[in-house]
Known about the structure:
By secondary structure, the protein is an alpha/beta fold. Among the domains are: 3-50; 324-417, no CATH class. It is built from 18 helices and 11 strands. It has helices at residues 3-30, 34-50, 71-85, 103-116, 140-149, 175-178, 194-197, 199-212, 233-244, 251-260, 268-279, 330-342, 347-352, 355-362, 367-370, 376-379, 391-400, 411-417; strands at residues 60-66, 92-98, 123-129, 159-162, 167-169, 186-190, 227-230, 285-289, 316-318, 380-381, 384-385. The strands form 4 sheets. It has a 5-stranded mixed sheet, with helices on both faces. The protein has a two-stranded antiparallel sheet with strand order 5-9. A two-stranded parallel ribbon has the order 6-8. Strand 1 (60-66), helix 3 (71-85) and strand 2 (92-98) form a beta-alpha-beta unit. Helix 1 packs antiparallel against helix 2 (34-50). The protein starts with a helix and ends with a helix.
Amino acid sequence: MDNNRRSRTxxxxxxTSLLFCLLYFQSELxxxxxxxxxxxxxxVLIRAxxxxxxxxxxxxxxxxxxxxxxxxxxxxILLRSLKFFWPKKYLKLTVLVDExxxxxxxDPFVERIKKSMENEAEVVxxxxxxxxxxxxxxxxxxxxxxxxxxxxxFTDSEYVGFVDDDTLITNYVLFEDxxxxxxxxxVLGRSTNFTITGPGWYQVSVTTRWSDKSxxxxxxxxxxxxxxxxxAHLKDIRLNILKHHPExxxxxxxFRRGIIRARRGYSQFNIMxxxxxxxxxxxxxxxxxxxxxxxxxxxxxxxxxxxxxxPKRRCSLHYNSDGRSVIPDFDFVKDVFKRGFxxxxxxxxxxxxxxxxxxxxxxxxxWEVVSTTPSTDHWLFEALDWRWDNRTVDxxxxxxxLNRPRTDWNQEEIKQIFS
Length: 419
C-alpha cells in the first residue's frame, strides 16, 4: 500500500471513530437516528476519499513527428490544446524533427518549439529523426509512420503515446481517459467495414494482414489519439513481423521493400495492434467500435466479449480529417475548447455557481446539458460517429461522473474562448 493510500485509510478510520463517538452522545440526548445518519456520513467519507483522488499515472511520453511547413497548425491545434487540457505534471513530450532539413530552417524551428512549450510541460524533448531517405523513398508521410514504429529508440518512458501534429485535445484529460484501473492503456478499435470506411481502408487491411499472414484484420486503430503502447512492445512487434517475413533482412528492409516499393496502403497503428492483439492481449484494455447496428465484423472474432463493445469516450479529435470544418478554421478550434472546458467541470462547480460555471451556462452548457448530452467532439472521429449506439449516453454519463475539480485553468485562454 503506498503512503498516500495508507494516509487516506488512517484518516477514514479516525473520522469514522470520531463519528461513532459524536453520534453515540447525540443519540443519548435526542434519540438521534444513529444507523441512518452513520450510513449517510460513511457515504460522504467514501466519496471524499475516492471521487476526487487522481490516480498516479504510469510514465507516459507523448510522441509527435513534426515539420516546419506545419508549424502554424502544430502551435494552434496540438500544442495549444495540450497546454490547456493536459495535466502539466503529466505532460511529457518528445517532438521529432527531420535532421536533414537545412540548418537555417531546422535550428530556428527547434528553438521556437522549445520556447513555445517553456514552463508548459514537465518534460519537453526535441530530437532529430535521422532515418535515411532510402528507407522511406523520400516521402515525409512514410517517414513519420516508420519513425513511430521505432519510437523506443527515442524514449525510455514505460509508455509512448503517439499523436499527429493536428491532434486536438477535447477535454481536461484524466487518468481514466488513457488507462484502465489496472494501469493498462485503452485501445479503441474500429470495425474494418469497408462499405462504410471506403476502399482505401480495404487496401490498408491487405497490408495489415500481410504483415502477420492473417486472413483477417482485427481492427482499425487510426481511430483515436493518443495511441498509447508499452514502449518495449515496439521491438516485439518488429521482431514478430520479421518472424513472419524471413525474406527481409531487417525491419527497415521490410518497410522499404514490402510497403513503400510495393506502394501498398497501410496504417502503422493497424499493424501495431494486429500484432499486440496476438502477442500482448492481456496488457491492454480493448474497446471495439462497430460502424452501425448491422456491422457484424467483431462477431467473427472469438476473443471479443460483450464488455469490449461498450462505448469508450475519446479525449481528442483529428482536426484535418474531422469533416465538420473548412480547413483551416480556428473558430472551430475555439468552439471545441469552449465545449471541452464546460464538459470538464464537475457538478459541484456548477452547483456553486462560480465564474467558470456562469460562463458555461451563459454559453448554453449547464450541468443538465453537459452531464447528459454526449458531445460530438468526443464521439466523432474522422467523420464517423459512434452515437448510433444508444449506450454512448450511459458511457458519457459515467465519464462525466469522473470529472475532478481543477484550479490551474489558463485564465487568458478562458477569456479568449469565451470572448
